[in-house]
Amino acid sequence: VRDCATIFALSLMTSSVLVYNIFNNIQEDDLQHLHFFTEYGRLALEDSGQAPFQKLQFLVRDWQYPYEEPYGAEGGDNVLQKQLQVGENMHQELATLRKGLSSCFSEMSNFLLPHPGRHVATNPNFKGNLNQIDEEFIEHLKDFMPKLLSPNSLVVKAMADKEVKAKEIMQYFKSYIEIFKGNTMPEAKSMLQVTIEANNLVSLASAKELYIASMESLCGGERPYLNQQQLDTEHRQIVASALAEFDSRKKLGGEESSLQYREQLATEIEKSYNHYKAHNESKNIFKAASTPITLFIMWFVLYILSQITSLLMLDPLADLASWLMWGLFSLGVTWAYIKFSGEFSEIGVVIDWVTGEVWENCFQTLLNKAVEQGSETAMKHAVTMMKLVSTPNPLTPNPTLNLVSTPNPKLNRVGTPNLEPRKRLLK
Asked: Counting beta carbons within 10 angstroms of the beta carbon of residue 381, is it exposed (0 to 12), middle (13 to 18) or buried (19 or more)?
């Protein structure tokens, strides 16, 4: 009995359509099997205001009263309505059960099937041969199956008014199986709490999947290196989209129950972002080559120091610089072997950390100062050039003055017209 109840409960909690197979007629005991789920449905209705279950299909096998109600869907619905009708003198518990069933399921229907035939019931060697089944049974079965399995009749499983994907249903199975491990049926309140938890976990997984898919297309796999500032900007936008996806899914238990799962989502996203950030940094060629570059710069500085101390006859300092150069060379060879072979990775991490500290605290500081000084010098030079261009030179002749002072060959020095040729013509 316990196993049957567990299977019945798992089937109902995870199905969009439950076919309740009953022999002969719908009895009071058959309805009592659904009593537990009416209590669960009452709690779920108080929480979300929606029917927790979708469709309950009663299927009455070997219907014996076709003279009262005919075989098929019409007769089955008439029988179901009579069974669910609440009478005036009906016991309170039975009346509550019927009212609860009507409110727990968004749709209920019934179908009456005749007996499959004497040969099926009495022949122990029956193997499912259709020719040995009564034609009347096959005829009504052909009428029932399209109502149940045709594409137009199939109903997608929904939870909190949101369709459940195939991979999401696994989370509900895991949660329900965990609560049914005991020797007794769990309380309806416990079942509702498990459903709320599973519903929030599914929403969390959907939002995190959206974040991971977006980050993979941005900087995952074979994608090129992305500037850290741009990566941070894109990350914030994707996080906003993931949180919006989580908030958009209607969840059981209200906002208070979903708040902790929203915080859990933010924490898991931050962990994933640290992974993507490290993966993106590994694509930075200069970052990967920072250790050998730092070792080479240190070696070069020591080489210059050794040459200067040799010229100044400071042999002890020159020898010390030479030994340090050999040490850096050996360190570089060791680092290259570790990266090539993959052995002694702990030593490689220490070498990277030491060279990183030297680069950040010494060379990077000097480089930043040099860049800053260069920028200031370039800015001062640009300002000086702009001032020179904008200030007029007094030695440069003004073309407007030239136009006024240029003599016209047709005018005399005084500026009046030359009338000498006309006088000659008059004479």
From this structure: exposed
